[in-house]
């Protein structure tokens, strides 16, 4: 379920909690305990370019893209930066 979106010249970014229901914890995805997902979709054909598991889903409209990376404001109170060309994530506690 996408709760945050952003667009670049080439891709559409969608982020949110996974659309799954765990039998032992049916509200986990809704309440942020199931982490999050970030999908990068090709703008020309809609195919998935990349999918990234996130420790926490974004807040509503909590996604931004700059030349330096993808920034996600998370429901767990952190700000994450995904840098282009690498898989390194940096988490910074928000104030």
Please describe what this structure looks like.
The chain is mainly beta. It contains no helices and 8 strands. It has strands at residues 4-7, 11-16, 36-42, 48-54, 58-66, 69-74, 78-82, 89-93. It has a 4-stranded antiparallel sheet with strand order 1-2-3-4, with no helix packed on it. A hairpin with a 6-residue loop joins strand 7 (78-82) and strand 8 (89-93). Residues 90-95 have low confidence and may be disordered.
Strand/helix succession: EEEEEEEE
Shape: globular
Side-by-side strand order of the widest sheet: 1-2-3-4
In round numbers, the mean pLDDT is: 85
Major sheet attributes:
4 strands, antiparallel
Fraction of residues in H or I helices: under 10%
How far from one another are the termini?
27 Å
The chain-level structural class is: mainly beta
Strand content: over 45%
Q: Number of helix segments?
A: 0
Low-confidence parts: 90-95
Radius of gyration based on Cα positions: 13 Å
Work out the number of β strands.
Answer: 8
Question: What's the topology here?
Answer:
Elements (H helix, E strand, L loop, with lengths): L3 E4 L3 E6 L19 E7 L5 E7 L3 E9 L2 E6 L3 E5 L6 E5 L2
Antiparallel strand pairs: 1-2, 2-3, 3-4, 5-6, 6-7, 7-8
